[in-house]
Amino acid sequence: MSLGGILCCAHRHDSVLYRIDSCAGLPHFWAMRIVRSVAAMQRLGRSWQRAGFRVGFVPTMGYLHEGHLSLVHRARRLVGPRGKVVVSIYVNPTQFGPQEDLSRYPRDLARDAWLCREADVEVVFAPDDEQMYPRDGAGGFSTFVVEEALSRGMEGQSRPTHFRGVTTVVAKLFNIVQPNLAVFGAKDYQQAAIVKRMVRDLNFPLKIVVAPILREADGLAMSSRNKYLVGALRPQALVLRRSLEKAQAVVCKSSRPVPAARLKAELKQFIERAPAARLDYVEFFERDTLTPAPSVTRGMQMALAVFIGKTRLIDNTRL
Ligand code: AMP
To answer: Which of 36, 122, 128, 138 lies closest to 76, judged by CA?
Structure first.
């Protein structure tokens, strides 16, 4: 039974959220730290490693939804009740293109912190840009991590600097938090593959776990950007899920491989029947190598990006 009490104590950089619950009439205090500085997070990560705690990490850009929380629960299950779960909340500017929605990306740290507290997270790491990309000192920030094979197609083609920003910030976050494992969502299928490759290639000592896509009741993949889908845009966003299902049905029914070009053209027509929808790309590819397939068979992966009005949404499935 919860007394519903939340206390927040702020120190110079960091703060602590306490939840006061009662169990059999006795009050219990749980604390979750909100760490704002890189140095403090790194110290904490190092001390946990020395003490032998297993640390599970979920990197996010915040404005949390059930999809994010499913990754948090997965991290908790994997590290166990004695382990530590860290969620980072950081809208990383280097992964946004100049014409993209960085400045209007939705943010609500107070709500996110509350959701993390309810999900038994130990630490929310929420640095600002000056912490992550300092401009002071000898010339500022000038080192980037680039994956050069898996990042070429799909998102990499539509958003040319996107994955450089992702791999750089994820590498930094791994060095700061020092987790034993990190959980990513299959919602960003290509991103998860690239992060796995980076971890292997650069010998990061941690395991990458990929968790399934969580969807709204009508099939729309959960996303912080769904907030932009107001009025008539929201129902039109269902074309993504319906396209996945349509392709699944075509491939399932066909006794022969289906030419990818034909299927792409059919899907483009289908998608753009919705007045606000514009196809950015649809691709069929091998699940491990992300190699585009000229003809499509069951077991391959499909991914697509569609603009609904000004909002760019992505989705994917196994066929
Ligand atoms: P974001 O905050 O959008 O950068 O996402 C942070 C993490 O949550 C990424 O690993 C995403 O793949 C994952 N994620 C986002 N939406 C979903 C979803 N609907 N289901 C599962 N994971 C998700």
So the answer is: 122
* Residue 217 lies inside a defined structural domain of this protein: no
**CATH number for 236:** 3.30.1300.10
User: Which of the 8 DSSP states describes residue 310?
Assistant: T
State the total domains in the chain. 2
Mutate to test the pocket of ligand 1, among 58, 61, 63, 71 (most ligand atoms within 8 A of CB): 71
Give backbone dihedrals phi and psi of 49, rounded to 5 degrees, phi first: -60, -45
Cβ 121 vs Cβ 31: under 8 Å? no
Note the pTM of the prediction, 2 decimals: 0.93
Domain range for residue 58?
2-211
* Residue nearest atom 13 of ligand 1, based on CA coordinates: 185
Query: In sequence order, what are the residues at sequence separation of 6 or more whose Cβ sits closer than 8 angstroms to the Cβ of residue 240?
Result: 220, 221, 304, 306, 313, 314, 315
Q: Examine the domain organization and report whether 179 and 246 are in the same domain.
A: no
* Residue 250 included in any domain: yes
Amino acid at 240: L
Ligand 1 contact, 268 CB (< 6 A): no
57 and 95 in a common domain: yes
Domain boundary, last residue among 184, 211, 238? 211
Contact indicator for 71, 40 with CB cutoff of 8 Å: no
Distances (CA, A) of 248 to 76, 233, 298, 301, 307: 33, 24, 8, 10, 21
Q: What is the pLDDT of residues 103-153, one digit of tens each?
A: 999 999 999 999 999 999 999 999 999 999 998 766 789 999 999 999 999
Whether 28 and 79 share a structural domain:
yes
Q: What is the tens place of the pLDDT at every residue in 40-69?
A: 999 999 999 999 999 999 999 999 999 999
